[in-house]
Amino acid sequence: MKLQKIISSCLVLAISSLFILSGCHLHVIDDPQSSQSSSSSPTTSSSRSGVVEPSDNLDISPDEITPAVWKVSDENGNYIYMMGSIHAADDSVYHMPGYFETAFSQCDSLAVEIDISSVLTDMTSIIDMYKKMAYTDGTKISDHIPKQSYDRLVEILKENNLYNNLYDNYKPVLWTSLMENAALMKAGLDTSKGVDTVLINRANNENKEVLEVESFDFQIDLLNNLPDELNAMLLEQYVADGAFDKQVTDTIELYDHWKKGTLTAEATGADTTASTNEVSLTPEQEKLLEDYNNTLLVERNKNMANKAEEYMQSDNVVMFVVGAAHFYGDNGILQLMKDKGCTVIQLTEKDADKTLQTSKDISAETQQDRSDAQLSQQNAA
User: Fold this and answer.
1) CA-CA distance, 161 to 182, in Å (whole number)?
2) Helix, strand, or coil here: 157?
3) Residues 154, 159, 163, 168, Cα dihedral to 10°
4) Burial (CB count within 10 angstroms: exposed 0-12, middle 13-18, buried 19+), residue 93
5) For the chain, which end, N or C, has fewer CB atoms within 10 Å of the first or last residue's CB respectively?
6) CB of 323 closer than 8 Å to CB of 11
7) Could you tell me if 41 and 26 are in contact, meaning their C-beta atoms sit under 8 angstroms apart?
8) β-strand partners of 95
9) Residue 224: pLDDT band with limits 50, 70, 90
10) CB 13 within 8 A of CB 39
């Protein structure tokens, strides 16, 4: 299991996204250890809305970005559109292919893991998030992970202008998010241009309803409740020799696969049989990773598939966009939808100019045709 890839393609990165998008300074929260700590935070070019507009003079070919988009239909003709998200991207996401644009134009609603734009306007939730992540027992992060790992983490964060000594008072969940963010920044990707973030902005501008598949509190609690032993393993994936540079390379590769629509279960980290960066693990560590995979992917995939089925059977047409890792593999959303008896078709450019009808429209037309036929029979009688 490629741990870092799972984080990139599975979670909304709620913590690091909020940290960067909101420009949130940790000093707004009382330091649980000392009020004398430094309170500087990295600067960001993100707008207050949390969405960065595309750069001028872009030279992006229309076929440069062709992510996978699926139409999933049930036996009654109800359907939903699905697309995997990468939660940090570049300006390419402002140039989606025609088949996506056609599908998105027909949708009444956009379903995402969490509505990050809504959370960004709720300072109370942001402060509560940081409070949940703070140690309250007098310990620091260095008391919970090996000293060598801690020293290397600080070194990498300093190299990327992301270190603040206030972070020492916070649990590994914040450090994992910071390291993920450092890798994304070095890879040239930006959480403010994440696929879901950009699409939420579009949906709001086009008066489409934004639906939340999960909740902000759910994701924070999910990450915050991971055991120390697992957190140490996750952080070790960044500090082993050459591991951080490999993470940057893997992140670039992952995004390239997403843009080309060539993602696989192994590429996203959803394939649990894949090696974990060739690190040998003890049986106890293997069990931790199995539990982690079940928590982060398997169980959430089931809940997401159930939500997708619920949306499909509503009167609205929904574009369902969650982390890419959720869609692939034997336990992925696509397979789960097939298990429910649904048909899954991947859209292509041939679908770009099609005029699509909603299930509601088709049902209404069918009912009208039946009524007309009955009226004709009555008149003939």
Assistant:
1) 9
2) helix
3) 0
4) buried
5) C
6) yes
7) yes
8) none
9) confident
10) no
